[in-house]
Amino acid sequence: MAGVEFYSTKLQDALNWARKFSLFQYPFVTACCGMEFMAVEAPKYDIARFGAEFPRFSPRQADLLIIVGTITERQGPILKRVWEQMCEPKWVMAFGVCASTGGFYQNYSAMPGADQVVPVDVYIPGCPPRPEQVLDGLMLLQDKIQKREGWAQRRQQRERGVTLAAKGKLPVIG
């Protein structure tokens, strides 16, 4: 019986290694941070070396949701629907201070962060964040994927109705 456990854990490690280098992103771009996000895709910063160069414009084909910009109250249900359409395992990255905390838009229509709607794995602060910060966040996410942190626990917590934001265990790049 111990041999079966050894093979299943080694297989899981190999799958996680493959997952961390083949992230298919779905950019949910709503505001001005989108211009800086495009710089990460350019040859100077070369996000392709991390295996995340192919954006998918269908949530069903993506496993990394990158929320770029302000989320308003009207966009909240749309964002949740996009996240629910993604297959497991799935990860979320909040790009910029507006996606992380609502930014300087402290009014009735701006949400105070994307984690009000979906569980966020990595926060990247800045207005807008530098491309180097995005690459740091991507490397942090790859480490989480390799260590199997986040998505299995999130599934259990989703079934119980608890988010990671409520527990205060979310990493911040900065």
Short characterization:
Helix content is 42%, strand content 10%. The protein has seven helices and four strands; from the N terminus they run H-E-H-E-H-E-H-E-H-H-H.
Topology:
Blueprint: H1 2-20, E1 25-29, H2 33-41, E2 64-68, H3 76-85, E3 91-95, H4 97-101, E4 122-124, H5 131-146, H6 151-160, H7 164-167
Parallel strand pairs: 1-2, 2-3, 3-4
Helix pairs in contact: 1-5, 2-5
Q: Could you explain the architecture of this structure?
A:
- The protein is an alpha/beta fold and 174 residues long.
- Helices cover 42% and strands 10% of the residues.
- The protein has seven helices and four strands; from the N terminus they run αβαβαβαβααα.
- The protein has a four-stranded parallel beta sheet with strand order 1-2-3-4.
- It is globular, with a radius of gyration of 16 Å.
> Helices and strands, in N-to-C order?
HEHEHEHEHHH
- Neighbour order of strands in the largest sheet: 1-2-3-4
Helix content: 40-55%
Counting helices, strands and paired strands, the structural category is alpha/beta
* Average pLDDT, all residues: 79
Number of helices: 7
The rounded Rg comes to 16 Å
Main beta sheet strand tally, sense and closure:
4 strands, parallel
- pLDDT < 50 stretches: 162-166
User: Multimeric state of these chains?
Assistant: single chain
How many beta-strand elements? Answer: 4
Percentage beta strand:
5-15%
* Structural shape: globular
Instruction: State the end-to-end CA separation.
Output: 45 Å
